[in-house]
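Lay summary

Proteins are chains of building blocks that fold into shapes. Our project writes down both the chain and a compact code for its shape. Here are two examples, one after the other.
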Amino acid sequence: MVDNEDKLAACAEPTKIEVSVIVPLHRDSAQFRLNLQRLCSLGSRYSYEVIVVTDQNKVDVLHGATVIQTNLSFDSGPGVKRDIGFAAASGDILAYLDDDAFPASDWIERAVEFFTEHKEFAALGGPGVTPPDSAPLARLGGAVYESRLGSGPFRNRFRPVGSHPLEVLEWPAFNWFVRREALLTVGGWDTAIYGGEDTWLCERLRRAGYRIAYDPGLVVYHYRRALLLPHLRQVANVGGRRGSFARLQLRTSTSPYFYLPVVGVLLVVLGIPLCVGICIELPTVMVPMFAVAGIAWFVLVGSWFGRLGVLAAVLPIFIVCHHVAYGSAFVRGWFSRSAAGDVGLRKLG
């Protein structure tokens, strides 16, 4: 039998934090406050803390989260904020979530149970699904990412694909868990770049012998940029950074799929004048060409009409714009010395 003194002593012991959720905040907003409220009220059976890291000096404590103010005079990169949060975290598992995302109710349970069952993996990621309450143009942007033509084999980053966890080379940090010991071993995020910091970290984890997994059921809801210009600016940033990583020959950036949009841009630049010339010289070619294009258009629009309504009619145009923005930025990143050499990345052997 346990006496009252033993009970009181047990109650006085601090609860061990199992998961530290770190959110790098770019800009405070009503949407971020709602996302944070959802995060802090998950009701997980595992203990967790929430740490928000921001450059702003007027963000108070929110919904029980710990707020760390960097007091930097510039917009520090998310890698910098994530390292600051890591230094203050006490959990054995670090969870990273973007400020424009919120997790599903079983997010923490699913990750902890995965790490318990799979000791061989050091990191785990899951898809960032477009929230159902998104604005129409944001849902359209999500459709570009989620479609096979938009993201190809990487669409599992934006919607659940498959039924079982599998090993991956890298994973975006908008929905990412990592063991403390693994992050300590590679020296944390260790970069001030804005965009691509997650690829840089995954590269170093892989080279240190750690394995990364993807779980389609580990869902967060990630708000998209609205089409067209905000979306294109975001994807161009991704393409430029991927081009610089490809130039540095990072193993996580050698997949031929990353180069396909570049080929697409060349086909657009070279193919349109060629097609126009052929149609002028051989008018009979126009009919089958337009017929094939029309069929492809209606198949794509029809497959998304149930989710997007009439907005699905312009989805093919935006997918083309998406790839042109990525492909042209990839080329710029490849050849830009500042992108490839002056971003604070050391070349790995």
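And here is the second example, written the same way.
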Amino acid sequence: MRPNPYHPSASNFGSGRFFMPRWGVVFGFLGLALASCGPEEPKILEYQLEGPVQGTTYSIRYTAPPGSDFQSSVDSLFLAIDAELSAWNPNSSVSRLNRGESLKPSEHPLLKAVLDSAAAYLKPTGGRFNPAVGPLVRLWGFYQKNPGAFPDSAAVDSVRALCGPDRLSVVDGHWVLKSGSAMDVNGIAQGYTVDVLCALLDQRDVHDYFVEVGGELRTSGQTVDGRLWSIGIDRPVQPEPERPDQPAERVLQRILPLSGKALATSGNYRNFRYDPVSRKRYGHSIDPESGYPKETVLLSASVVAGNCTKADAWATALMVAGLDEAKRLALTEPGLEVYLIYLNPKGVFETWETPGFEPKE
């Protein structure tokens, strides 16, 4: 599905193995800033909260009066989300569900919210965003420490039958997951986490903020010096020929001003498996219909939407769709702005974007 799996470090801040953020990079305006009318005590502070979490890192910037440090509340939210959504935590709600335990949705509100959101995107994306793809993700060895050999066609066909959208149902007030199936919420969990953090700030009457988890991000208002937040989008640079199993160095493709919107990017150029025998790279974007990682000239899909849950789900779906279908979907889905980076027949980077991707002055 998506890069950066939920990782055990989500429940152990400051320790464990974690990855750097995936995509969007914020430029400037990130130092601790003060806004004051004179030498007296500043009336507005810019707060910075950041650290390792969910197998990656998070960064939160917001302006608020003195005494508005919400670090403890943020830490509590991350722990609550880990307890329900982490595929790496064997005691999380989603892990228990995937083991076949009988769970009541009402007792697992965060997992219920994520699964409900995922179900809402199934039809609009033509089935390309499907959290029931979990068995295929496992089969292809993504997010595993020792993934093992690549599967053959017989194994793919066998497991693909376990990934239908009807594999999860509610019977007598309990989730029922059919045998052999597994829910993978990694394609939406970080976007949902961003939205939960934004809701916390909204509830605290904070209106100017930037919230990012693993590169998925959402902004509101402006920076402390009155500018729009500036967001960088990676260029999907391919691995070097002499190091085909390692991602290339990061290079920026585009800088985007953003306020009151969310941005999520999905791509296959950083999270992939390399087969030294066939010398082929397999991206993490698995097509639920074919059962195979999607082979496409589309290298990355960046989505701007009103919330990060939606942006995250659609970025995943567009990568699975491939270039031509991604363009069609981007122009038909309301409230979506899209920026695609792909290779033309000559192997040169080209881009395509919807008319409203970047706000005009």
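What can we say about the second shape? Confidence is low (pLDDT under 50) at residues 1-38.
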